[in-house]
Write a structure and sequence with these properties.
This protein is of the alpha/beta class. It has a domain of 236 residues: Spore Coat Polysaccharide Biosynthesis Protein SpsA, Chain A, CATH 3.90.550. 41% of the residues lie in helices and 10% in strands. It is built from 12 helices and 9 strands. The strands form 2 sheets. A 7-stranded mixed sheet has the order 2-1-3-6-5-8-7. Helix 6 packs antiparallel against helix 7 and helix 7 packs across helix 10. The longest helix is centred in the N-terminal third of the chain and has 22 residues. It is globular. This is Related to alpha-1,6-mannosyltransferase. Keywords: Glycosyltransferase, Transferase. It holds the Pfam family Gly_transf_sug. Belongs to the glycosyltransferase 32 family.
């Protein structure tokens, strides 16, 4: 069962309000403001006391009924696009790519999260799940945080996650889901490597994901991601904050596309080979498995496909430009890289 969350103000408004309360403490303008600030401080202390009780043996799974994940049911995927920027902000190229999606879909909202806004969002939205907040805030590798963030956002509010190096084609987002599937599709993913012979290479892309809020599939992805991160930390005998790029191995398998693909397939309760045999190697139409719509490779990853001359795939819905800002020793963008 889903329970509706009280819709809070925008992150910028909440941060502004928080600053106002803090300043009023020192200006002595009102006892009421001072008391409010004390309550906020006590709340923060209480949160971290909860965090301290969460060791690896006490870790819970993310259930739909948990108060941290209370989400109003949605009849369709929300028309909202989520973006995350690094410390350098949005490049000119990224802005142009982003605009191809926003200008062609004027009814869609969008939200751009910075590092600090993303931290605030996770703290506020998952306040009753301290193990989620604790893990997210402790991660020091940007790409690991970005992977976990997209899953948390889609679980909490739904919509579309888009990487900054993705541009949209001419097909409006509203038409990405075929009409016959619109009432049943809750999660939309696209094959990255659809036409290769090696089944182990077949995975869903994570640079573009569409989801209703509160899905068990995304809950499974989050649970598995948290478990994988803590197992990796235990393997190297370090806290989550101590993980570095030399320890984590292949991020694609740890928190990225392959990890997400495995969790979704597990959530569907079917074997990976059943999806592979039914949706690959050469399929040119979207296919619905339960409430998960799987788009052919040309939809989100046209450049990675190898079609025969006589084959006529459909339109590329998006183009991924493979900037790969996370592929460095830091696992992500640095504000002031060493020259």
């Amino acid at each position: 069962m889903y329970y509706p969350l009280h819709r809070s103000r925008s992150l910028s408004s909440r941060l502004s309000a928080s600053t106002t309360v803090s300043m009023s403490m020192f200006s002595g303008r009102s006892i009421k403001s001072f008391a409010s600030a004390i309550l906020i401080t006590l709340g923060v202390v209480s949160f971290f006391l909860q965090c301290s009780r969460w060791g690896p043996g006490n870790r819970k799974t993310l259930n739909i009924s948990d108060t941290a994940a209370e989400t109003a049911p949605a009849s369709s995927i929300p028309e909202k696009i989520w973006y995350k920027v690094g410390p350098k902000g949005i490049s000119t190229e990224a802005r142009e790519w982003m605009n191809t999606c926003l200008e062609k879909n004027p009814t869609f909202e969008h939200e751009i999260l910075t590092d600090s806004l993303a931290d605030t969002y996770v703290i506020e939205r998952f306040v009753h799940r301290p193990e989620i907040v604790e893990t997210y805030l402790a991660l020091s590798i940007p790409i690991l945080k970005a992977d976990l963030l997209r899953y948390l956002l889609l679980f909490a509010e739904g919509g579309l996650w888009s990487d900054l190096d993705v541009s949209c084609g001419d097909t409006p987002i509203r038409d990405w889901i075929p009409e016959q599937y619109r009432n049943n599709a809750s999660l939309v993913v696209g094959w990255e490597f659809q036409t290769v012979d090696d089944q182990h290479m077949r995975e869903f892309v994570t640079w573009m994901i569409m989801s209703k809020p509160g899905l068990p599939h995304m809950s499974m992805v989050i649970n598995d991601t948290l478990q994988a991160l803590h197992e990796k930390a235990r393997e190297h005998k370090v806290p989550i904050s101590g993980l570095n790029m030399d320890m984590v191995g292949d991020i694609v398998w740890l928190t990225g596309p392959m990890a997400m693909s495995k969790s979704i397939i597990k959530s569907l309760g079917i074997e990976k080979d059943n999806i592979n045999s039914g949706a690959t190697p050469y399929v040119f139409e979207p296919q619905l498995f339960d409430d998960v719509l799987i788009l052919p490779g040309y939809s989100f990853s046209a450049s990675m496909q190898q079609y025969k001359d006589e084959e006529h795939p459909g339109p590329a819905l998006v183009t991924h430009h493979y900037v790969g800002s996370w592929k460095n020793g830091n696992g992500g963008e640095e504000a002031n890289p060493v020259s």
